[in-house]
Write a structure and sequence with these properties.
The protein is built from 20 helices and no strands. With 547 residues, it is mainly alpha-helical.
Length: 547
C-alpha cells in the first residue's frame, strides 16, 4: 500500500483546505451591456448621430429658443380653464383606473381561488393595457368619442389600469396568508375574506400607488391635447401649429411649474399616507381606542379620513365635468363596435415592422446615452461619493426641472428646430432617459453602505479607487435593474413620438386611425404589444439573474 511522504515539520498536521474560488458573476451582468452596446452602435448608424449633426442641431435649437422669448401665455382665463381641465382628466382617469384595478388585481393574483380562465383574463387585460401608451389610447378614444376631455380621461384610465393593477397584484401576493386562512375558516365567502383581510392589509400601499400614478397621469394629461383629447395640450398644439413660439414657450413654462408644484404636493401626501407609523409600532389604519375592540380616532386618522373624503368629492366633480351623456355613450359604443369589427383581419406590413424597429432603436440608443450621463450626474449628486453639497443640490434641482417636461414636448421643440425624423426623437428620449436614470441612480447610491468606501479611503485609496472597489459592487444590481426599467419606459414613449414627427411607429398609428384604416391600426397595436411585452419579459429575466 503506498504511503504518503511528509516532512518532519508537517507530520501530524491537517492539510490546509484549498482556497475557495470566488463566486462567478452572473452571465447577465456582461451579456446585457454587450447587447445594449451592439444595439446602440446600430442606432447611431441608423439615426445618423454624428458630432457634426449634433453641433448643427444645437445651433438650430438655440435659434428656435431665441424666437420663443419673451414668452407669453395668451388669455389667462382660457389657459386657467385648460389647466383645470387637465387636472380633471388626470383625477377622473386615475379614479376610474383605481376602482377597476382592484377586482382585476384580485383576480390576477396567485392567491385567487376562482376559475382559472378568470385569472387568465385578468392577467391578459393588465398586460395589454400596460403595454399601450396613454397617448395611443387617446388617439383611439378621440376617434370613438370625439374631441374633448372625455377621451383623455378614458385614455388615462385604460393605461393606468395596467400599471396600478400590476402593482396591486404584487401587493396582494406578498400579504401573509394567515389572516386569510383564519377568516376563511369561519365560513366567510370569497368576497368577505378579500375585504376583511387582503384589501384591508394592502390599503396603505394601494393608496400610495394611486397617488404616485396620479402624479404620472397629470404629466401625461398635460400633452393629450396634442391629439385632441382636451387639457392644456390643446393650447400648446394651437400655438405650435400657428408658429406662435412665444406663447408655446409660455405654455411649456406653465406645464413645468404645474408639474413641479403637483409633484411636491404628491410627495407630501404620500409621506403622510405611508409613513404614519412610529419606530416601535406597525402602520395601522385604525389605532386602538379606549377599548381594544373599538378603533380609536387619532389626529392622523382624522386627517386621512378627511383627505379620503376630499379625494372622493374631487373625483366625482371631475367625472361630472367630462360631460359624458347617455347619447354620447351610445354614439361612442357604435363607433367602438365599428372600430373593433374593422380590426379583423389585422394587417401587418413591412412598413409597420420598420416603424417598430425604429422605435426600438431610438429607445435603446437613447437609454445608453441616458444611463451613462445619468450615472455621472448621480455620482456627483451623492454626498458620500463627492462631498460637495452645493453641487449635489444644484444637479438635483436641474434634474427635477428637466423631468418636469414631458418627452413629447421635447420632441415638439426638436422637430420644430431640426425637422422630421428619428434624430429629434432620439434627442428627446436621451434627455428624458438622462433625467430618469440619474434620479434612480442617485437614490440607489444614497442607500449603499458607505463603510467599504471609508475603509478604502482610510488606507490611502483615491476617490475613483474607492468608488470602483467600494461602491460599484454594491451598486451593480441596482444599476442594471434601473437601466432596464429606463429602457422599458423609453420604449413606450418612443412609440408615440412619431405623432409629432419624431420617428418611430407613432406616425403610422396616427395616420391609420385618422384615415379609418383600422386593419392597419390593429396590426400596429398587436405588434406594439408583442414588442413591449417581450422587452418587459427580457428585463424581468435579467433582473432575476442579476439582483
Amino acid at each position: 500500500m503506498p504511503t504518503t511522504l511528509t516532512s518532519p515539520g508537517t507530520r501530524g498536521r491537517t492539510p490546509a483546505p484549498a482556497p475557495a474560488r470566488p463566486p462567478r458573476a452572473p452571465a447577465a451582468t456582461w451579456v446585457i451591456p454587450l447587447i445594449l452596446g451592439a444595439v446602440t452602435v446600430l442606432g447611431l448608424w441608423w439615426i445618423d448621430v454624428r458630432p457634426a449633426a449634433i453641433a448643427a442641431g444645437f445651433e438650430d435649437i438655440t435659434r428656435l429658443l431665441g424666437r420663443m422669448f419673451p414668452a407669453t401665455t395668451g388669455p389667462v382665463p382660457e389657459l386657467a380653464a385648460l389647466v383645470v381641465e387637465t387636472l380633471q382628466i388626470a383625477i377622473a382617469g386615475t379614479g376610474i383606473a383605481a376602482l377597476v384595478s382592484i377586482p382585476l388585481a384580485a383576480g390576477a393574483a396567485n392567491t385567487f381561488t376562482g376559475p382559472r380562465w378568470v385569472q387568465w383574463l385578468c392577467r391578459t387585460l393588465i398586460v395589454v393595457s400596460r403595454a399601450v401608451p396613454s397617448l395611443v389610447f387617446a388617439i383611439i378614444f378621440v376617434r370613438i368619442f370625439g374631441l374633448g376631455p372625455a377621451a383623455g380621461a378614458l385614455a388615462i384610465a385604460f393605461h393606468s389600469v395596467g400599471m396600478i393593477g400590476k402593482m396591486m397584484t404584487d401587493v396582494f401576493e406578498e400579504i401573509s396568508a394567515s389572516p386569510r386562512e383564519a377568516v376563511n375558516a369561519t365560513g366567510a365567502n370569497r368576497f368577505q375574506v378579500f375585504v376583511a383581510t387582503t384589501f384591508t392589509q394592502a390599503l396603505p400601499q394601494m393608496t400610495s400607488f394611486v397617488l404616485y400614478r396620479l402624479d404620472i397621469n397629470i404629466r401625461a394629461s398635460s400633452v393629450l391635447g396634442l391629439v385632441g383629447a382636451g387639457g392644456i395640450g390643446v393650447a400648446l398644439q394651437r400655438s405650435i401649429g400657428s408658429l406662435d413660439y412665444p406663447r408655446a414657450a409660455g405654455i411649456i413654462a406653465v406645464i413645468i411649474v404645474l408639474l413641479l408644484v403637483l409633484e411636491l404636493i404628491s410627495n407630501l401626501v404620500q409621506r403622510a399616507v405611508s409613513e404614519h407609523a412610529g419606530d416601535t409600532q406597525h402602520s395601522m389604519a385604525f389605532p386602538p381606542g379606549k377599548e381594544l375592540s373599538t378603533p380609536g380616532w387619532s389626529a392622523p386618522r382624522v386627517g386621512r379620513s378627511a383627505g379620503l373624503l376630499a379625494g372622493v368629492v374631487l373625483f366625482l366633480l371631475s367625472l361630472s365635468a367630462l360631460s359624458i351623456s347617455p347619447d354620447r355613450l351610445a354614439r361612442g359604443w357604435e363607433n367602438a363596435v365599428a372600430m373593433l369589427t374593422g380590426f379583423v383581419p389585422p394587417v401587418f406590413t413591412a412598413e409597420i415592422a420598420l416603424g417598430l424597429f425604429e422605435s426600438l432603436v431610438m429607445a435603446f440608443t437613447a437609454t445608453t446615452f441616458g444611463v451613462l450621463i445619468g450615472l455621472v450626474i448621480a455620482v456627483f449628486s451623492t454626498e458620500h461619493l463627492v462631498r460637495v453639497p452645493v453641487l449635489g443640490w444644484a444637479l438635483r434641482g436641474v434634474i427635477v426641472v428637466v423631468r418636469g417636461v414631458p418627452d413629447i414636448v421635447y420632441a415638439i421643440v426638436f422637430v420644430a428646430a431640426l425637422g422630421l425624423g428619428p434624430f429629434a426623437g432620439f434627442l428627446a428620449l436621451a434627455i428624458s432617459c438622462t433625467a430618469l436614470a440619474s434620479k434612480f441612480f442617485t437614490d440607489a447610491l444614497q442607500n449603499i453602505d458607505p463603510g467599504p468606501i471609508r475603509a478604502l479611503e482610510a488606507v490611502g485609496a483615491g476617490r475613483l479607487q474607492a468608488f470602483v472597489a467600494g461602491a460599484w459592487p454594491q451598486f451593480v444590481p441596482s444599476f442594471i435593474g434601473n437601466s432596464l426599467f429606463t429602457a422599458d419606459l423609453a420604449l413606450r414613449e418612443s412609440a408615440v413620438l412619431g405623432i409629432v414627427g419624431a420617428g418611430g411607429i407613432g406616425f403610422l398609428l396616427h395616420e391609420s386611425v385618422t384615415s379609418i384604416d383600422y386593419q392597419t391600426t390593429a396590426g400596429i397595436l398587436i405588434g406594439l404589444i408583442v414588442v413591449v411585452v417581450a422587452v418587459e419579459q427580457m428585463a424581468r429575466w435579467a433582473r432575476r439573474k442579476v439582483i
